[in-house]
């Protein structure tokens, strides 16, 4: 964390967004964007980064689905591992 000192105030530069990239393993800390799936504590892999959130896929067949599960999450619902 750096600080800039001007004559009247001190401004801090904080890293607002964690550095996430495609293919990175993340831990889920909250609900998906629709609020339908509660997968807290599970691990997923970042599929894509979009302007409205981060698409996370879950390896294998999950929740008795025939297709892989891919859900949209807010950046604050994910934890880097």
Account of the protein in words:
The protein is mainly beta and 81 residues long. The chain has one domain: Roll (SH3 type barrels), CATH 2.30.30. Helices cover 0% and strands 42% of the residues. The chain contains no helices and seven strands. The strands form two sheets. Strands 6-5-4-3-7 form a five-stranded antiparallel beta sheet, with no helix packed on it. A two-stranded antiparallel sheet has the order 1-2. The radius of gyration is 17 Å and the shape is elongated. The two termini are 22 Å apart. The mean pLDDT is 81.
How would you sum up this structure in a few lines?
The protein is mainly beta and 81 residues long.
List the helices and strands and how they pair.
Blueprint: E1 2-5, E2 10-13, E3 25-28, E4 43-50, E5 53-58, E6 69-73, E7 78-80
Antiparallel strand pairs: 1-2, 3-4, 3-7, 4-5, 5-6
Radius of gyration based on Cα positions: 17 Å
Instruction: Please estimate the helix content.
Output: under 10%
The assigned structural class equals mainly beta
Overall number of structural domains = 1
What characterizes the major β-sheet? Answer: 5 strands, antiparallel
Summed up, the helix count is 0
CATH topology: SH3 type barrels
CATH class: Mainly Beta
DSSP strand (E) fraction?
35-45%
CATH architecture term: Roll
What series of H and E elements makes up the topology? EEEEEEE
Shape summary? elongated
Low-confidence stretches: none
- Sheet with most strands: strand arrangement: 6-5-4-3-7
């Amino acid at each position: 964390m750096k600080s800039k000192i001007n004559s009247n105030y001190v401004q801090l530069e904080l890293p607002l967004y964690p550095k996430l990239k495609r293919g990175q393993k993340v831990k889920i800390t909250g609900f998906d964007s629709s609020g339908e799936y509660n997968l807290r504590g599970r691990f997923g892999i970042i599929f894509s980064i979009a302007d409205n959130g981060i698409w996370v896929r879950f390896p294998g067949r999950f929740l008795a689905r025939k297709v892989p599960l891919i859900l949209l999450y807010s950046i604050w619902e994910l934890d880097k591992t």
